[in-house]
Amino acid sequence: MLDSIFVGMSGLLGYSRGLKTISNNTANMNTPGFKGSTLQFTDLFYSSGNLYGSSGNGQLGFGLNTAGTTLNFKQGELRSTNNALDMAVDGQGLFTLKDVAGKLHYSRAGQFKFDINGTLVNKADSAKVMGLDSGGGLQEISIAGLLTNLPKATNTVKFSGNLSSTATTQAVSGVKVFDRNGGEHALSLQFTNTGTAGVGTWSVNILDGTTTVGTGSVAFLDSKIIPSTARITFTYAPAGVSAIPVTLDFSSDVTSLASGNVSNLAMASQDGYGAGSMTQTTFDESGTLLLSYSNGQTVKGPRLALSYFDTLDAVASVGGNMFDAINSAAWHRGAANQGAFGVVRAGVIEISNVDLSQEFSDLVIMQRGYQSSSQVISTANEMLQQLFAMKGK
């Protein structure tokens, strides 16, 4: 009967550990990136040999044991936060973090920010979020020195529309170009019809205000521009800025049809831009940093480093929404949207994968098991009391 009490106590201990596991799961039901765990039960050793001369093997068990917990790495729900630096991995993979001591950790909770030094860090503990360098090694992700996008001088201006073949002169205004310092200038073109029968030839005068800064000519045959005359290159040197070569491109979508004296020829695009300040930082599906600027430009930065493991035996929870590698040989590193890795979703986080209905069901089982074990102890105690009472008689 004393053995029965010890067996019942092993049940109480085991089910209390199970209750603690359930409590931890339910307490973290809203913790980003949290992975629930399940306590594993095993039976204890058995006595061997025949008992009291009985036939058969006569084995009696000695109770309940626990063999640790098993993580459930099923993906949790992705929830929108509208914060461009909140991220989740949709599929396989964990973010790679480096703490202040230089040790690597891994997380599914992508709640990041740029610190005062411009380095991408984890909000919870300021661990650095690691990216991949050109050789596949780890590097920090930083926007230091990238807050401003430098200007680019205009090289090519493209035009589209119709230049009326029956007009004698036509003007195109609002031709925007940028100099090397990002200064914006509005040029105008003056077309003069110098063509002969069957061929529409136009002399082109390029003006900055009233000053001629370049000249050239274009020619059309059967309303289509002759390729050899489709581009005019001139050197533009605004005051106080070094000269830049600019090409006016009429090679695409430019015609010369009879349309009275009405022309709709206009600038279609140009490849220069002024200086811009950073307006947004985010990451695309491949985990590449995207920097957006007020001048309409987008610059790509490093890619996030993701990791995954081959077996749950190689990963351990360490708190702070992070996991550690127990066996580094079972871990792999790479980039999102490549191979076995999932894609990165910006503006969302992955919440806990705890299933409350399952936890409450397990809670009932733990409670009944605890009650049953306590009842065994009470019954064995009563039997001992009866035995001691018999001796008194």
Quote the CATH topology of the largest domain.
Tick-borne Encephalitis virus Glycoprotein, domain 1
Q: Number of domains in the coordinates?
A: 3
Output the CATH homologous superfamily of the largest domain.
Answer: Flagellar hook protein FlgE
Based on CA atoms alone, the radius of gyration comes out at 38 Å
CATH class of the largest domain: Mainly Beta
Compose a concise summary of this entry.
The protein is built from two helices and 30 strands.
Textual characterization of the structure:
This protein has 393 residues and is of the alpha+beta class. The protein has 3 domains: 113 residues, no CATH class; 103 residues, no CATH class; 115 residues, Tick-borne Encephalitis virus Glycoprotein, domain 1 (Sandwich). Helix content is 16%, strand content 42%. It is built from 2 helices and 30 strands. The strands form 7 sheets. Strands 5, 6, 9, 10, 11, 22, 23, 24, 25 and 28 form a 10-stranded antiparallel β-sheet that branches. Strands 12, 18, 19, 20 and 21 form a 5-stranded mixed β-sheet that branches. A hairpin with a 2-residue loop joins strand 26 and strand 27. Helix 1 runs antiparallel to helix 2. The radius of gyration is 38 Å and the shape is rod-shaped.
